[in-house]
């Protein structure tokens, strides 16, 4: 280790050697902020449409069933929320990995989990893409308000792509070193 002015120079942290990775993490933080916003808005829409539906039903108002909008809001909450859970590490499989004792065993389990999540995301990306195309072709809609289904189905590939993005960055962070998210792999 080189000495400067009588003190030892700090060896570069693994991530310091990879500025592109820091930029990717910054991009990921921006995406996560967007995911949180989408989930919060979806929850708010679900709550408001549920209240509106109860009020309309109990007062006997001649208004359409707005709970369909709340049902539609469940789709982004589920799919974008799943990607957010991947980033936050709050899936069941991740909890199991953290419970393992040995760091080597945790790393191996984390790698296996990453492969599983990537496979899941790839399968549902493809399935969602096909579903979206079919809904666009057929023009399928929900019954009460005529909400088109293809934009909701489009959230399948979007959510799965976000999930895969988070997992790939986690794998890179694991490969670079334990200091990249403040958590040892």
TrEMBL record:
Role, per record: Part of the tripartite ATP-independent periplasmic (TRAP) transport system.
From which domain of life does this come?
Bacteria
Q: Which GO terms describe its cellular component?
A: plasma membrane
Main localization of the protein described in the UniProt heading: membrane
User: Where would I find the Tripartite ATP-independent periplasmic transporters DctQ component domain in this sequence?
Assistant: 46-172
Q: Name one GO molecular function term.
A: transmembrane transporter activity
**How does this chain sit within the bilayer?**
Multi-pass membrane protein
Q: Does the keyword Cell inner membrane apply?
A: yes
UniProt name for this protein: TRAP transporter small permease protein
Compartment list: Cell inner membrane
In the record, what lineage is assigned to the organism producing the protein? Bacteria, Pseudomonadati, Pseudomonadota, Alphaproteobacteria, Rhodobacterales
